[in-house]
Design goal:
The complex is a heterotrimer of chains A (329), B (310) and C (293).
Chain A lengths: L2 E12 L2 E13 L4 E5 L6 H9 L5 E10 L2 E2 L5 H4 L7 E4 L13 H11 L4 H14 L16 H12 L6 E5 L7 H16 L5 E5 L3 H7 L2 E6 L2 E7 H6 L4 H8 L50 E3 L2 E3 L2 H5 L13
Parallel strand pairs in A: 3-8, 3-9, 6-7, 7-8
Antiparallel strand pairs in A: 1-2, 1-4, 4-5, 9-10, 10-12, 11-12
Chain B lengths: L28 H11 L1 H23 L32 H37 L1 H16 L2 H11 L5 H11 L2 H15 L2 H8 L4 H12 L1 H24 L10 H10 L8 H29 L7
Helix pairs in contact in B: 2-3, 2-12, 3-4, 3-6, 3-7, 3-10, 3-12, 4-7, 8-9, 10-11, 10-12, 11-12
Chain C lengths: L1 E12 L5 E13 L4 E6 L5 H8 L7 E6 L2 E2 L5 H10 E4 L15 H10 L5 H14 L4 H4 L9 H14 L4 E5 L7 H16 L3 E6 L2 H7 L2 E6 L2 E7 H6 L4 H9 L29 E5 L2 E4 L2
Parallel strand pairs in C: 3-8, 3-9, 6-7, 7-8
Antiparallel strand pairs in C: 1-2, 1-4, 4-5, 9-10, 10-12, 11-12
Classes of the chains: A alpha/beta (329), B mainly alpha (310), C alpha/beta (293).
Chain lengths: 329, 310, 293
């Protein structure tokens, strides 16, 4: 079991109170698994990614355990996490490609980074070259400044750098969002290749784009308002979603080949709840077409046959039709 | 400096990740600013000090027992209650207190007029250059640079040679017309960054003229910045005036704080230990300009939510 | 009818402005009321530049844009304002489109004073309510609030309501839903489709092929400033002839089909030199043109 997360709670402290961005999340990521973390803005997926490696100083760790390869990660302690970062667990943060130092050549930046981590760059130079070539970049990229590289190239460089020391877990936060469709495919496939070649044991890919996750992830975890909604193999989530939120979300995605005149898609009315004072019980119940009185009590996370779900209705009657019908024109 | 009073309260800089709740009792932007303003120690201290000095400047000349230029018979008197010479007299028998309050009043006048003129010119030049860009920007830039490098002392000497009597007003105007370049530059840069925002394009799509857009969309967005800039120009005008006065280029028909210091040095007050002659004006200038700057730092914290202590 | 005729936009770049960057090259197309035309392109394709030129925020370096046969580059003052009564735009970032220090509904006040100064306040209030209803917004939810108190979807819909108040004939929608969540995107998209049914002509600029496919009647595929394929949407998407279009379609992540392992060579090609000739468009079937070469 590469990663084991148990009841993780991470809040943001603000003037108005604690924003409960991540409120009790538990899941496992197996060795060699690419897990996709999907959800809309404000659901807590980025917070989850950053909290596993303790990247953001404004977060307040409140409770829960994280075990990486059986060893507990001290995610409450910034200094203690230093020993793990980059070596055992690594992250490609959101906007990483825009955060490259504009006045440093790529090669020099890598060299400085390795030195700060106590790794001699002599021995590893060959490996760097080899991996760059693997992602389709020439060695000469090391002599260029970030501004001379395209978005896709920068993203691939960042992926190569983050995985240089073969970490057990790579967290990739929205790495395809700012890219064009053609480079998006190349970068996403790079992730899969790195996993296949065992450069990285497991991955957590965070994105709002479920279609990309369907293409590259083995499992998809859907989050809503700081809690887990559903977890299932990627094919299952798309073909056979059970949680009402997932079902509404999947059915609201336009696809090439589907036109308004033929099949009008429907969105989800309303807005996610405030995380400052989240509602009791199921957080989706205000917008859920299947909500009943029982939903004022928080549904437990139930795992069965490789699928997990937090919903009273869906656990009881998985194939119940949604009252909100998808109209055809 | 996006000093917007209505910035959201939550600390994560990624707004998409955290839901910003509507406050239970919605505080308008102004009241929220006031709330923080009253708690900021630097702002309160600076404001108190400046107000105190302003009060002295307003009331002082009415309670002074003698005119600032009037010669008396008691020469180089130490501060005493005798004859109302609370700050003593100069080597020529003039009432230091009267000169002090008169000079303080003049300092505020020079600050207001000089700073005000500089602010107006800086806004006109900075906004236009930033909004228009292109050729207009280049021309205004050239003018800014020229004014920036003009040797103001030399220019003032030439002007002084031609004017028989120099009052405070010409001095203030001169300072106003020569100290605006840095402010114009800063405003231009700020305007550039605002012009690229979509709401300016939206205003254009609403048929708003350029002038209206600058006045109604861009300037209000920078209101806190403009306010702070005016305070800086105010303070620097006072300082420049004091410097000019000290080297003898001050007004010829009255006594300012800088001139007090000039006269005291000329009359060897330091060597003669007439401390009451040069200490009050020096301390007053320091206190006034210093408190203005401290006030500005406090204002920056109030207006910019990210600098506030949590 | 809105028409672009061999429109090009070239920028001066580099030190001392010696270099040239052609953002848009030789683009021609027509937009009718009641039609949705998608302009699809990746970053650097020039699609936003086309939108801004149609909105008269930028001037074309070559070619002309005409509205009902009148060249919009000649419009000034009052005539320009009349143009803005017919053509309006909504941009990508809803939060940037509002002046953050004022309330969101100030945009309506601006339209009132600039375009309808003689309309009474009561009548204006009624018109505003109608416009808000057309975009499915409740006046109590959105009026008298600051932009940061509203969601991206609500802000975008307010902008559409503003455009409707002007009784426009054409709307330029520049990536208007790319910053919205998946669940709200579709509502705004359906709104656009609804407006089209009521006679509005929409220039829908996007990088997302699925969106373009969902909503548009005609499609233009833009690459490095030139049109490589254009025509009826079913034909361009159903039978893509240009290798770039094919690569784009092959790279879109689908929900029921996995990616093939091929590399999109055509899509990753570099930018052609600035003085290269604009490829000519050849008709391959009715309402379907492809760039030759």
């Amino acid at each position: 079991m590469a990663l084991h997360v148990e009841d993780l709670r991470v809040y943001y402290r603000t003037l108005a109170g604690d924003v409960k961005a991540l409120d009790g999340v538990s899941f496992d990521v197996a060795d060699g698994e690419i897990m996709g973390l999907a959800g809309e803005s404000g659901c807590g997926k980025s917070t989850l990614g950053k909290s596993l490696i303790r990247l953001d100083g404004r977060m307040r760790y409140v409770g829960g355990h994280v075990l990486l390869d059986g060893e507990e990660l001290p995610i409450w302690d910034d200094a203690a996490m230093n020993a793990f970062r980059f070596r055992r667990i690594s992250i490609v943060p959101q906007y990483a490609m825009s955060a490259l130092n504009p006045i440093r050549k790529i090669g020099r930046m890598i060299h400085e980074l390795l030195r700060s981590r106590g790794v001699s760059s002599n021995g590893i130079q060959k490996e760097i070259d080899r991996r760059l070539e693997l992602v389709g970049l020439d060695r000469s990229v090391l002599d260029l400044y970030p501004i001379e590289l395209s978005g896709g190239m920068k993203q691939r460089v960042v992926i190569v750098i983050s995985t240089l020391l073969d970490p057990s877990l790579l967290i990739a936060d929205e790495i395809t969002s700012a890219l064009d469709v053609s480079t998006q495919k190349a970068v996403a496939q790079t992730l899969v290749e790195f996993r296949d070649r065992r450069f990285v044991k497991s991955m957590i890919v965070i994105t709002h784009d479920i279609a990309v996750l369907y293409q590259v992830a083995d499992t998809i975890l859907v989050m809503y308002a700081g809690k887990l909604a559903e977890k299932a193999p990627a094919d299952e989530i798309v073909a056979n979603p059970r949680h009402p939120y997932t079902r509404l979300l999947v059915s609201s995605l336009p696809e090439v080949g589907v036109r308004y005149a033929e099949k009008q898609l429907v969105g989800i009315p309303g807005r996610p709840p405030s995380l400052l004072e989240p509602p009791s019980g199921c957080r989706f119940r205000d917008r859920c077409p299947l909500a009943t009185a029982r939903c004022t009590q928080e549904p437990p996370w139930v795992e069965q046959d490789g699928r997990g779900i937090a919903c009273w209705e869906a656990s009881a009657a998985p194939a119940a039709a949604l009252p909100v019908a998808v109209e055809s024109g | 400096m996006s000093a917007v009073p209505t910035a959201p309260l939550a600390s994560p800089s990624d707004p998409s990740e955290v839901e910003i709740p509507a406050p239970a009792r919605p505080m308008s932007g102004f009241r929220e600013t006031l709330h923080f303003a009253l708690r900021n120690r630097k702002l309160v201290f600076g404001l108190a000090m400046t107000s105190a000095l302003l009060l002295i400047a307003l009331i002082g000349p009415f309670i002074a027992q003698h005119g600032p230029l009037a010669y008396g018979t008691d020469l180089a008197l130490r501060p005493t209650t005798h004859g109302g010479y609370w700050f003593g007299t100069t080597l020529q028998g003039q009432d230091v207190f009267a000169q002090f309050v008169n000079g303080l009043r003049l300092a505020f006048i020079v600050g207001a007029i000089g700073g005000g003129i500089a602010a107006v010119v800086a806004m006109a030049v900075g906004f236009t250059a930033g909004y228009r860009g292109g050729v207009v920007d280049e021309v205004l830039n050239m003018i800014t640079n020229v004014v920036l490098v003009i040797p103001t002392f030399a220019l003032l000497l030439v002007i002084a040679a031609y004017l028989q009597v120099r009052g405070v007003l010409p001095e203030a105007v001169f300072i106003g017309l020569t100290s605006w370049p840095w402010a114009a530059r800063a405003l231009r840069a700020q305007t550039f960054s605002l012009v690229s925002r979509d709401f300016v394009d939206m205003a254009r799509l609403s048929g708003r003229s350029s002038r209206k857009i600058i006045v109604k969309e861009i300037a209000p967005n920078m209101s806190s910045y403009l306010f702070m800039m005016f305070i800086l120009l105010f303070g620097s005008a006072i300082l420049i005036a004091a410097t000019l006065d000290f080297i003898g280029l001050g007004p010829s028909n009255t006594i300012s704080l800088g001139q007090m210091m000039q006269l005291s040095v000329q009359n060897a007050a330091l060597q003669l230990h007439l401390w009451w002659w040069f200490l009050p004006p020096g301390l007053a200038i320091m206190a006034l300009v210093g408190s203005l700057y401290v006030m500005n730092v406090g204002l920056d914290e109030v207006f910019n939510p990210k600098l506030r202590d949590m | 009818m809105l028409r672009l005729d061999h429109v090009s936009k070239t920028y001066r770049v580099g030190s001392f402005g010696r270099g040239r960057l052609a953002a848009v090259r030789g683009v021609s197309f027509e937009l009718q009321p009641g039609e949705v035309l998608s302009v699809i392109g990746e970053s650097g394709s020039g699609k936003s530049t086309i939108g801004r030129m149609v909105l008269r925020l930028l001037r074309p370096t070559e070619g002309s844009i005409t509205h009902d046969e009148v060249d919009i580059a000649q419009l000034h003052g009052h005539a320009l304002k009349e143009y803005y009564r017919r053509v309006q735009g909504v941009f990508q970032d809803p939060f940037s489109s509002y002046n953050p220090i004022f309330k969101a509904d100030r945009i309506f006040g601006m339209v009132h004073t600039e375009f309808f100064p003689r309309v009474s306040d009561d009548e204006w209030r009624e018109r505003l309510d109608d416009a808000l209803e057309s975009v499915s917004l409740n006046r109590n939810d959105v009026l008298h609030k600051y932009p940061h108190q509203l969601s991206g979807g609500q802000l975008q819909r307010l902008l559409v309501a503003r455009a409707l108040l002007l009784e426009i004939r054409y709307l330029v929608a520049d990536e208007i839903i790319s910053m919205l969540d998946a669940s709200t995107r579709i509502d705004v998209l359906n709104l656009l489709a609804d407006l089209k049914e009521r006679g509005l002509g929409i220039l829908f600029i996007t990088h997302d092929l699925s969106l373009g496919n969902y909503i548009s009647d005609s499609t233009i595929i833009l690459r490095h400033g030139c049109i490589v394929e254009m025509g009826a949407t079913e034909k361009v998407f159903g039978d893509p002839r240009h290798p770039y279009t094919r690569d784009l379609l092959a790279s879109v992540p689908l929900l029921h089909e996995k990616w093939s392992r091929e590399d999109g060579a055509a899509a990753n090609g570099g930018r052609p030199p600035e003085h290269a000739e604009v490829p000519k468009l050849v008709s391959v079937e009715d309402d379907h043109l492809v760039a030759a070469g």
